[in-house]
Amino acid sequence: MTPWPVIPKDAIEYFRSAFAEANRVATERIVNVPNIRETTLDDTLVDALIPFSPPKRLQSGAVVEMDVHNIGGLRRIYHWETADIAILVFIYRGRQMVAQKIGMLQTKRLFPKNNDVLDDDPEGFRYGMNAFLNRDSRSPLAVLNREFVFDETCVYGVLKAGSDQIATINNLNSQFGESVFYMFYNPSTVPISIHYPVRSRRRIKSAKLGCRVFFSKEVHTVLDTLERDRSPTLKMIVTGAKTSNWRLESWVSDLVLQCKLGRRFDDSMQDKVSMLLERRSGPIGAAIAVSIALPDD
Fold this sequence. Notes:
Blueprint: H1 9-32, H2 38-48, E1 56-57, E2 63-70, H3 75-78, E3 85-93, E4 96-109, H4 122-127, H5 130-133, E5 146-150, H6 164-176, E6 180-185, E7 192-196, E8 212-215, H7 216-223, H8 234-240, E9 246-247, H9 248-256, E10 263-264, H10 270-277, E11 286-294
Helix pairs in contact: 1-2, 1-9
């Protein structure tokens, strides 16, 4: 392949600001709704990028654009996905595409100490709106007075040692190159406590902790130390990560866009990329295409 093109600094910073805002919005959501579904956090993050999607000409002359597509799929039922969010990068010179790459994120949320998190109910998903019509007989008063505490001993409850998903991710990274990473949804900082009933909405200006990206191999090394079906704590993941632990916006702008991480691909690898992205039953929940048309020389 030809060398990765130099991307203008203002294009890098444009996407840094876009993903920083998505990080902030998703983090603010988990701080205000601490038992929110993990899949809803994915939807929140993707939706926050939409205002940055229209094409824009920057001062350097580069034109930037994002195509944001929430694919959905069957992950809410079968829980076998390889990744939840794919970031694709397409670089153009004039009207010709000169480079492309992909990085994928398997997302997991931090559970509060009481492990009270809404589940994605397979039966409810199958029956659609019937799940809302056939309501729980309990009054909201029954769940009114609750406290959600997050600290470094809290676990990523859906991430389990010995799960089939680990082997699937390892297999894909082995075949396709290191392209699948973990992204963890966290509150803005720890320790933090959120109480129900809510008295006022919390506003987050920036996320000190927030969405963090890790090498999958480092996460799996931590999982290898645990008994089967045990979940790692925030402290375990952070301590075990020797070379990763990036803010989402840093991972995108400093590493993926500048070709330090992620997997470059060309037409010879199109079948593999299509399998990941185009099939409705495929293993990706949402795709974000980042396009940059380089300025004229």
